[in-house]
Each structure stands twice: as structure tokens, then as C-alpha cells.
Amino acid sequence: MGGRSTASKRKPVAPAGDTGRQVAAADNPEADNKLRKHQQRLLNVFSDAFAAVLARDSLPTILQEIKRALYNRDFAVAFGRQDYLEAYAARWSPTRALCYAAVFRAIGDHLDALAVEAEVAASDDDVEATSSLPPRGAAAAADGEGEEGPRSSDSGDGEASPSAGRRRRRRRLRMLCFGGCAAEHVAFASHLCETGSRGDLTLVDSAPWSETASLLQRQLTSPPPLSKYASAAARAANAAANIVDAAQLRFAFCQADALSLGRDRLADLVGAQRRGNPTPLVVTLMFTLNELYTDGGIGKTTRFLRLLGEVLPGGSLLLVVDSPGSYSEAAVGKEKKKYPMQWLLNHTLLGTETAGYTWESIESEDSVWFRLPDGLDYPIQLENMRYQMHLYRIHRPES
């Protein structure tokens, strides 16, 4: 990263055939600079977390092995080893994390509308949260059950701290991500950092991402490493340089195949089985849905989407991001007729009658370029990326 001998400046890639809308840049140079600094901090999370991985001589070989497994659609091999997961996260997740953060920024008004205000202890910022929660308890934890109450602290002069016993209101957003882990984790932390909200994140993936997710959580909630020669002023400034604090972002990881989840397990993950009225949340399928259609089959994927609709609280959002155009097609029937992923998705959500709920399409982009700005540093070269994005809201009749 900046000032490190191992870092190299990213070489911008300008893909040919520049079709599709581009993510709009801020018109304000000061805002551009602020955003670029924030994006660099996100890249630093990856380069610091995976410094040893990025420095390995064997990294190019491992990346080629992962690419070969992905090409052969052998996901058990591609994501079956810890060193493969770390190499994948170090190589491909940084750009996606910045891209997803840009998507969250673009739909920020919709996300803000889901954030629920709740009282927390004034001292809650000092509470160390665990980096991982038991999957079965994820829904309860995500809804704030077990939140610590006010604590008194010693101010050093024998008197209670002015904040002791006080409570304040904080906004908290719940997110449930199916497929992928590292990029979603960092992008969600970015959203919380930029909005000042708190969040509860549940990551669901069939691969064993738990160790990598815990590593990223520590990196996101800890100040970046400093040289032992850093000045006192630099150390003081660095103390608050983490992306989020531990109480601001709580996460749980659940290793499971999304298509094998039953209704009760899905309801548990979205918090539909907790006491009282469950709060709406945002569910994401980031570069995941087309894989489900292609490898799990259209029937199983349609069943999963319908079960999701049955258990999601009213007002919840479904965010789908995937490769654009012909890169996202699924074959149907013996003749293997191909259908676009978006058509299949809209047919299930919007074109099929359902009992007890309806879906509304509120945002849709067929093709968008995310381009990395000049001036960002990362130890290896990163590329721009193109994606399609679709956002839906679920409605339920008032009880």
C-alpha cells in the first residue's frame, strides 16, 4: 500500500467494447478525493489481511489452479482449501468489494429506509463484540436480543463517567448474503462506515469461509498496522483509523448450500421466527444467482426463491448483482434452450402468482461498468468489472 515497498500502483484497464452505463463519479473534486481515500482504506484491509498470501511465490500457481477449477465448474476444488480461499479473497474480492460498496451507495436511500432505530448503551462503542456467532443464533443476535445495557465506567477521578447510564438511539441494518463472503463483508462495513449506522451481517456459503471471514472482521475492526518508528501523533491518529468498531458491525457465518435450506432454516436466518414482528432486511445474491441456476438447476433455484418470499418480512429487499448479458444464461429442458438470468428471476418474482406476498421491482440496470479510479495502490493488478443489478421489495398484506 502507500509507502510500502511491496505495493505497486494499479495499472488501469480499459476494456474494449465499452458498453453499459458507468458508475457516476462525484462532480465535486473534494468528494472524489474523499471517496478515493475511503476506497484505498478498503483495499488496505485486503492487503493487510492477506499480506503473507500476496507475498508468496506460489500465488500465481495457486490462482491458476483456482481459475482452472472454476472453469471446470468444480467449486468443491476451487473453494475447498483454506489457501485457495485466501488467495481468491486476495485476488478477486478487492475489486468486487469496491464495486459492491458503490452499489450500496447507489441504493443508499432504500437501505437507509430499512435501518431500524434502537436504543443502545452510551458505552456500547467500547463493548467488544465476538467476531462470529453460532449460525442458529444468528437471527436472534441480528435483531439485537442480548444487547448489553448501560455500564458505568471509572473516569479516573472516582466519579462516574458522564456517559454512564445514558442511552442513545442508533440505526441498525440487517443484511443476509447468500454466496460469496469476503467482498460482501468489506462492502457492508464500508456502508456502515459511510453512513454511521450499525449492522448485523449473516454470510451463507457452502464453502468453509469462517476462518477468512473472522480474519477480515478483525482487520475491519482494528487499526491498520503501523511502523514501529511511527510518531506519537501518527499512533494517536491511527487508533481510530479502523473501518468500523466491533460493536458497529456484528457478523455470523453459516456454512450451508442455499438450495438445500428448508423453509424453517431460511426463516431462522431471516429472523422470521423470533418473538414479535421481525424487522425487514436486505438479502443479497452477488454473482451467485446465475451459478445457482446453472449448477443447481432452475427447479431448485426457483424453489429457493419462492421459499425466500414466504419467510421474508414485508418491506425487505432482494438485491441481485451478476455478470451482464450472455454471461448470465441458464439452459432449460432437453434441448438446453437458454434463458437470461434476469428473465428467469422476473418470471419467478413478478410473473407468478403467490399467496401472501408480492414482489416489486424498484431498481434495475442491465449493464454497468465499475471502474477503479486512478491512484489506488494494491500489491497486484486489479481490473475493472461490469455487472447487472436488480433490486426488489417484498410486500405483504397488512395483518
Detailed description of the structure:
By secondary structure, this protein is α/β, with parallel strands linked by helices. The protein has a single domain (21-55, 92-145, 167-395), classed as Vaccinia Virus protein VP39 (Rossmann fold, 3-Layer(aba) Sandwich). It has helices at residues 29-49, 51-55, 59-71, 75-78, 82-91, 93-106, 108-114, 138-142, 182-195, 210-220, 232-238, 263-270, 289-296, 298-311, 341-349, and strands at residues 8-9, 21-22, 116-121, 167-178, 198-205, 249-255, 282-286, 317-322, 329-332, 337-340, 358-370, 377-378, 385-395. The strands form three sheets. Strands 2, 3, 4, 5, 6, 7, 8, 11 and 13 form a nine-stranded mixed sheet that branches. A hairpin with a 4-residue loop joins strand 9 (329-332) and strand 10 (337-340). The N and C termini lie far apart (54 Å).
In short:
With 399 residues, the protein is of the alpha/beta class. Helices cover 38% and strands 21% of the residues.
Task: Summarize the topology.
Blueprint: E1 8-9, E2 21-22, H1 29-49, H2 51-55, H3 59-71, H4 75-78, H5 82-91, H6 93-106, H7 108-114, E3 116-121, H8 138-142, E4 167-178, H9 182-195, E5 198-205, H10 210-220, H11 232-238, E6 249-255, H12 263-270, E7 282-286, H13 289-296, H14 298-311, E8 317-322, E9 329-332, E10 337-340, H15 341-349, E11 358-370, E12 377-378, E13 385-395
Parallel strand pairs: 2-11, 4-5, 4-7, 5-6, 7-8
Antiparallel strand pairs: 1-12, 3-4, 8-13, 9-10, 11-13
Helix pairs in contact: 1-6, 1-10, 3-5, 6-9, 9-10, 12-14, 13-14, 14-15
Keywords: Methyltransferase, Transferase
Protein name: 25S rRNA (Uracil(2843)-N(3))-methyltransferase
InterPro entries: Methyltransf_34 (IPR021463)
